[in-house]
């Protein structure tokens, strides 16, 4: 969940760090900090003892921490050779300045930033304390700085000659390799050391890490080289993006990048394709990122659907390393995901079972591998993650592969960790999503999973080509229908104003309307900080109806899907008990309108595709409720965009 930024070379290292951290704010954070490596005096020796200690600044004032850092930036020493920065979302240790990154060693010449969790930090800390180290924080990260210190102390030989580019390493890289061999858990690490001016060393296991460079940065020169946990942090500053793989160590200097395995073998880092530009990561004239991304949903849908039909009329995913015969043998599908992606998976269950006639189980990714699921070579496991870096989902698909299952990833990030581990990939082409609450990526996931359902149906011969074509035509109408709903934002605002003082909501739906209700309730919780619970409407009478009384607000998804009549009977039950009713209903549906105190109108759509349209007014409803209360819709409290811890 934390954000990492690093820069070496150039004259504006601190500015790059602060700008990169600002672009990582969407990941959620409670503290922030930077550390700079400074030029050593002309008469200093090559060792760190005579060098200049690192300069560090940290702040722990929640989402205003970066503002605090900017206030002290004017007193920072000039001419920094390299630096690392961090936004922290607390895991080990409470949010405080002492626990904020970067963390230093005992000599204040090593600084480390970290994303992830070191699972054996307690035993490592006990070992360090016993050997005389003093730990100043409650974090798991600080042990890494002290372990590096110990490795550097044991390494007395001078730094190696670095005239050749790949495979040559200095003492800091050697220390990092030794240290990560002792760590259990997931991590992305970056470190600087006063003993190697202008050098950043980074390593990763599971947690994402990307290097950014000018065109010449892997062929010598003096250009700035960058490091980040997410691409938007360095968009516009780098032309090439290189990926650090699991258990690899990267050594960055101005104009050069060298990557080795944990065993010291040189490797060529793969290059990432990045089609986004800097403007795509900025607000583009909207008041906030979420508003911008809400209005980008029609384009995200259209781009996700683009080019899916091949000249022969068959459907195409993006990367498939599973043969058609293997897919035809699949007799069960599991969808594993978290949060909004899980809700998208619930919608996919209806589509895959109806169109492809395959049984589907939906699993919360964090629980999947712990319940000993029954998987084999005839099982298809679909991992859904916006970033492709959600640790729970990555671990779930890894477990599935170990059981022999085929794995397909649905991700918004090309070459993400999950995409590279899968046997096939279906990319949602939504572009970068900065707002923490998923909007356009959620709709793109729904569309992508519908494509997958049709792909399986066509491959298995369940649907005739003309039936697939008709459903694809229906899908092709979704961007314009979503655009139409977004144009009614003012009407949704009026309903939100009528409910701005409500603190408790019940969201109800049936069939595909139930996952929509779940997503609507989640958005209300995330953004407006209200208590919002979602239920299949038929479950009301099995307990929750006891809470319905005059003043209770019930939001129902009541578009004309197959269980509309039963849904309206459930709405009648809550009305008779005094509830205030807000319904999502199809244009012109007078019967539904007569049952509601307020209506969020949407155009009619194919029933199995209706969630693409029906969820949009609920997104807008939560957005307006939050704005009316003065909340930051881009950075909801306690939340992070990419969850990279279990």
Spell out the blueprint of helices and strands:
Elements: E1 3-8, H1 13-23, E2 31-37, E3 55-59, H2 65-73, E4 82-88, E5 103-104, E6 110-118, H3 121-130, H4 142-154, H5 171-180, E7 185-193, E8 200-205, E9 210-213, E10 225-228, E11 240-243, E12 248-253, E13 256-261, E14 266-267, H6 289-295, H7 297-305, E15 319-320, H8 324-328, E16 332-337, H9 339-356, E17 360-364, H10 365-368, E18 379-385, H11 391-402, E19 406-411, H12 417-421, E20 424-427, H13 440-459, H14 465-476, H15 478-486, H16 489-498, E21 504-509, H17 513-528, E22 531-536, E23 553-557, H18 564-575, E24 580-586, H19 590-594, E25 598-602, H20 611-628
Parallel strand pairs: 16-17, 16-18, 18-19, 19-20, 21-22, 21-23, 23-24, 24-25
Antiparallel strand pairs: 1-4, 1-10, 2-3, 2-4, 5-6, 6-7, 7-8, 8-12, 9-10, 9-11, 12-13, 13-14, 15-20
Helix pairs in contact: 1-2, 4-5, 7-13, 7-15, 9-13, 9-17, 13-14, 15-20, 16-20, 17-20
3D structure, described in words:
The protein contains 20 helices and 25 strands. The protein has 646 residues and is α/β, with parallel strands linked by helices. The protein has three domains: 3-279, Glutamine Phosphoribosylpyrophosphate, subunit 1, domain 1; 304-476, Glucose-6-phosphate isomerase like protein, domain 1 (Rossmann fold); 486-646, 3-Layer(aba) Sandwich (Rossmann fold). The model is unreliable at 159-169 (pLDDT under 50).
């Amino acid at each position: 969940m934390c954000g990492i930024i690093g820069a070496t070379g150039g004259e504006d290292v601190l500015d790059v760090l602060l700008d990169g951290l600002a672009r990582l704010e969407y990941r959620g954070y409670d503290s922030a900090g930077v550390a700079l490596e400074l030029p050593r005096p002309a008469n200093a020796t090559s060792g760190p003892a005579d060098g200049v200690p690192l300069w560090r600044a940290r702040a722990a004032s929640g989402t205003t921490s970066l503002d605090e850092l900017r206030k002290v930036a004017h007193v920072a020493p000039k001419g920094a050779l390299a630096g690392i920065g961090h936004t922290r979302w607390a895991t080990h240790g409470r949010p405080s300045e002492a626990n904020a990154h970067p963390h230093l060693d005992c000599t204040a010449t090593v600084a480390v930033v970290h994303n992830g969790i070191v699972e054996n930090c307690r035993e490592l800390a006990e070992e360090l304390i016993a050997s005389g180290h003093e730990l100043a924080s409650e974090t798991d990260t600080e042990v890494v700085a002290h372990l590096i210190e110990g490795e550097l102390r044991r390494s007395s030989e001078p730094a190696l000659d670095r005239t050749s580019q790949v495979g040559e390493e200095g003492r800091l890289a050697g220390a990092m390799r030794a240290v990560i061999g002792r760590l259990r858990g997931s991590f992305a690490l970056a470190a600087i050391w006063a003993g190697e001016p202008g050098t950043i060393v980074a390593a990763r296991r599971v947690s994402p890490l990307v290097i950014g460079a000018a065109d010449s940065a892997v062929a010598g020169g003096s250009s700035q080289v960058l490091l980040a946990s997410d691409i938007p942090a360095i968009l516009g500053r780098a032309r090439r993006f290189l990926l650090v793989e699991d258990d690899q160590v990267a050594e960055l200097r101005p104009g050069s990048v060298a990557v080795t395995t944990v065993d010291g073998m040189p490797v060529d880092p793969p290059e990432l394709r990045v089609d986004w530009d800097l403007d795509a990561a900025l607000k583009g004239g909207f008041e906030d990122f979420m508003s911008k991304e809400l209005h980008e949903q029609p384009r995200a849908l259209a781009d996700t659907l683009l080019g899916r039909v091949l000249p022969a009329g068959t459907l195409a995913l993006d990367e498939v390393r599973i043969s058609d015969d293997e897919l035809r043998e699949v007799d069960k599908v599991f969808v594993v995901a978290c949060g909004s992606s899980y809700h998208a998976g619930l919608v996919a269950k209806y589509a895959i079972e109806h169109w492809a006639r395959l049984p589907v189980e939906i699993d919360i990714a964090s629980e999947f591998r712990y319940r000993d699921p029954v998987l084999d070579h005839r099982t298809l496991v679909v991992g859904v993650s916006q970033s492709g870096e959600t640790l729970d989902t990555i671990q779930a698909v890894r477990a599935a592969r170990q059981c022999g299952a085929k794995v397909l990833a649905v991700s918004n990030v090309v070459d993400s960790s999950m995409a590279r581990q899968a046997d096939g990939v279906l990319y949602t082409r939504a572009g970068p999503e900065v707002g923490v609450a998923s909007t356009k990526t959620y709709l793109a996931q729904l569309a992508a999973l519908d494509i997958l359902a049709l792909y399986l149906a066509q491959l298995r011969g369940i649907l005739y080509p003309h039936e697939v074509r008709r459903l694809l035509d229906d899908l092709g109408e979704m961007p314009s229908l979503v655009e139409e709903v977004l144009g009614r934002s003012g009407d949704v605002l009026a309903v939100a104003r009528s409910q701005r003082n409500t603190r408790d909501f019940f969201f109800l739906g049936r069939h595909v309307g139930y996952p929509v209700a779940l997503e609507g309730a989640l958005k209300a919780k995330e953004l407006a900080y209200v208590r919002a619970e979602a239920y299949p409407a038929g479950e009301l009478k099995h307990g929750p109806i006891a809470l319905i009384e005059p003043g209770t607000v019930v939001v129902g998804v009541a578009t004309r899907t197959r269980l509309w009549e039963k849904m309206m009977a459930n709405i009648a039950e809550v009305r008779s008990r005094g509830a205030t009713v807000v319904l999502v209903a199809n244009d012109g549906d007078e019967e539904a309108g007569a049952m509601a105190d307020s209506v969020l109108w949407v155009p009619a759509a194919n029933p199995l595709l209706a969630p693409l349209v029906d969820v949009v007014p609920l997104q807008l409803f939560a957005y307006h409720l939050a704005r009316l209360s003065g909340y930051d819709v881009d950075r909801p409290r306690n939340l992070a965009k990419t969850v990279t811890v279990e």
